[in-house]
Each structure stands twice: as C-alpha cells, then as structure tokens.
Write a sequence for this structure.
C-alpha cells in the first residue's frame, strides 16, 4: 500500500497553530516598572493597570490607573523601557 506512505502534514500544521494561540497571563508581572506621565513629564515606580488577557475580570487595586503625581488619566501613562 504505497498510498499510506504519502506525507501530508498540512492539516496537522493547521491544527497545531490553532492550539498554540494561548492567552498570556500578566497577573504576576513585575511591579517596579518606571511609569512616565506625558502630562506632567514626571515618572514614578509602579505597575500600570492592564486587564489580564486571561483573567479580564481580575482587578489589582495597587495598579496605577492614573498618574500618582498629577492624577492624569492612564492614557497619559507609559511604561519606560529604560
Ligand atoms: Zn492572569
Ligand atoms: Zn502626571
């Protein structure tokens, strides 16, 4: 039965790709990012509030939702890559 020796991996690869799309949990990411405020141009150390792709319902109260110095909305905040 030569037919069974034919290699056809295309379907196999498609399934593999679909399974490898995993949501990354960011709940345990580090809390000492340097956050820069583009409104007051100052920076502070903390963690920018971001919904976890895997646990969007979890809220961390200690995460920065606004600038610690001028109170600007989190849209003004950026994590500095240093
Ligand atoms: Zn998470
Ligand atoms: Zn600010």
């Amino acid at each position: 039965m030569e037919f069974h020796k034919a290699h056809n991996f295309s379907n196999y690869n498609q399934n593999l790709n679909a399974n490898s799309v995993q949501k990354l949990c960011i709940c345990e990411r580090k809390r000492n990012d340097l956050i820069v405020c583009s409104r007051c141009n100052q920076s502070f150390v903390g963690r920018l509030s971001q919904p976890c792709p895997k646990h969007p319902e979890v809220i961390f109260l200690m995460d920065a939702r606004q600038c610690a110095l001028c109170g600007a909305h989190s849209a003004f905040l950026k994590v500095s890559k240093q």
